[in-house]
Amino acid sequence: MTLVLADLPRATQRAVAETRERVAALHAELPRNGLVVWTAGNVSERVPAVDRGVPGLLVIKPSGVSYDELSADAMVVCTLDGKKIEDGTPAALVPSSDTDAHAYVYAHLDHVGGVVHTHSTYATAWAARGEEIPCVLTMMADEFGGPIPVGPFAIIGDDSIGRGIVETLRDSRSRAVLMQNHGPFTIGKDARDAVKAAVMCEEVARTVHVSRQLGEPLPIAQGHIDSLFDRYQNVYGQPAAGAADQPSQEA
């Protein structure tokens, strides 16, 4: 039986509306940061669970629609098995072709609240070679905790890509995976966090590529990678309201 958004509790309807607003706005960051062309790429976010008994939901862009037309009302709502609900959008407006991959990630990684896929040039070039991006930058140690790994080759059309993402990232500190011959997928605590990871993934892919044109990049010792990752994840930035003063950090 297909879920009907209008029949769900008011709190869930509000959560869906707010998630649609966030996801629509964050899609603008992909072309702004040069991560996509035409209608490629997608951002999704898990809808917060605010009512008991309501199945898990996600919001994602519709397939093949121009970024200029991605309003909140156009965002598609799906269950965590990738099926569109009756969400007020036209029946002909189908979700992204990558929806099954996103849904599989949410269904199998409870800590993930946002997923992003792009075909950004440099990260996709590494994926085409089936080569992980080595951790030779402190920025990479900070953000990804090590190299950005390569996931298996998989065809769009079912949850095969999602399985590859989960298998690759389940035991990894990286929030990005280069799906072989396809491109990068990133995860985060929410959609904004996953978009940030996508931007950073492309930046380090480009920088390491340029470095290799000049010679072999110098490795970073694992102990330093671990220390940098711990500092960035747990100390960097402004302290939470009411927290004790933190030492100053780099910009």
Q: Can you give a write-up of this model?
A:
The chain has one domain (5-234): L-fuculose-1-phosphate Aldolase. A seven-stranded mixed β-sheet has the order 3-2-1-4-7-6-5. The protein is built from eight helices and seven strands, in the order H-H-E-E-E-H-E-H-H-E-H-E-E-H-H. The chain has helices spanning 10-27, 29-32, 99-108, 121-129, 138-144, 160-169, 191-214, 222-234, and strands at residues 42-46, 57-60, 76-79, 114-117, 150-151, 176-179, 183-188. Strand 5, helix 6 (160-169) and strand 6 form a beta-alpha-beta unit. It is globular. It has 251 residues and is of the alpha+beta class. Helix 3 crosses helix 6, helix 4 (121-129) crosses helix 7 (191-214) and helix 5 (138-144) runs antiparallel to helix 7 (191-214).
Alpha-carbon Rg, integer: 19 Å
Oligomerization state: single chain
> Which CATH architecture is right?
3-Layer(aba) Sandwich
Assign the structural class, choosing from mainly alpha, mainly beta, alpha/beta, alpha+beta, or little secondary structure.
Answer: alpha+beta
Number of strands: 7
Q: Which fold does the CATH topology refer to?
A: L-fuculose-1-phosphate Aldolase
Q: What summary fits the major beta sheet?
A: 7 strands, mixed
Q: What keyword list fits this structure?
A:
12% strand, L-fuculose-1-phosphate Aldolase, 8 helices, disordered C terminus, 7-stranded mixed beta sheet, globular, single chain, alpha+beta, 251 residues
